[in-house]
User: Fold this.
Amino acid sequence: MEQSAQQARQLDRLAAAPVSGGSSPFTAFGMPGVGGPAPAAPPEPRPILELEGEEYEDELDALSDWVDDFLLPVYGAEVTTAAPWCLRWQEHDDVVAWLHALWLAYQQHRDPEAGPSGLFVWHRDFLAHAVAAIRAPGGPLSACMTSPERPAHRLLPGPPPSARTEKASAAESASSGPDEPDEPAS
Assistant:
């Protein structure tokens, strides 16, 4: 009965004449952008590592609040050698990037438009993968805290530039001339 009443209300609304004169006949059908100004699109989210200055700091503060107040209390399993963590994770750019992407996906999938299964999709497609990558035994936090009794933090060095990049840098510096003359080999 309720569904029939809902359908009747919708038919009445669709059959009603447009409110303002001169507007598009499609306005009554709720077609966006027809019969009026287009709704403003929300700004596109940007990866946190593309932000700078105060914008970066504000986003990192908001991310830290989400990680500390939601993610870790709910999903931050015990710290072990198999699942390391770092109290200074904000200094690990790769971890910041992973957690920011996870947070953006969380915001998208908890939105009502994601539907009832939105958060299930977030758990299945985003949470499990991101946490596994961040807290892997050989992952970005592997040199940090592996026991809550021994807090530790260490940034692991990344790989050097490729041979092609090194070769291009050497050729560029050779073509611009040496800054100081080379010392003769002894």
